[in-house]
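Researcher: Please translate sequence to structure tokens.
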Amino acid sequence: MPTIVVDVMPKAELLDPQGKAVAGALARTGHGSISGVRVGKRFELTVDGPIDDAIKAEVAALAENVLSNSVIEDVVGIHYEQSNAELAEETVAAHHDGYDAPAGETH
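Model: Translation complete:
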């Protein structure tokens, strides 16, 4: 099933106390080369059926209006992921020329 990933981060101009706490913990545990951390949210939405323009528009609206708080957060990414089987099906459908070579024939 296709998955849509929505990434939400705190606005760059706002303090990120959770990120600051993680950065402090990393420094205390010997990872001093990491100077900053910002902590965001990741939503994975699974949809039934293909991801079409209507689903993309619906998810974009959800990301802006429901999954994030526009006062303090930005939607920084919406990614559309499909399984390898789904990608293989699309590839076969896109490149099938109607000719099926007999077994053992490579062209």
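Researcher: Any highlights?
Model: The chain has three helices and three strands.
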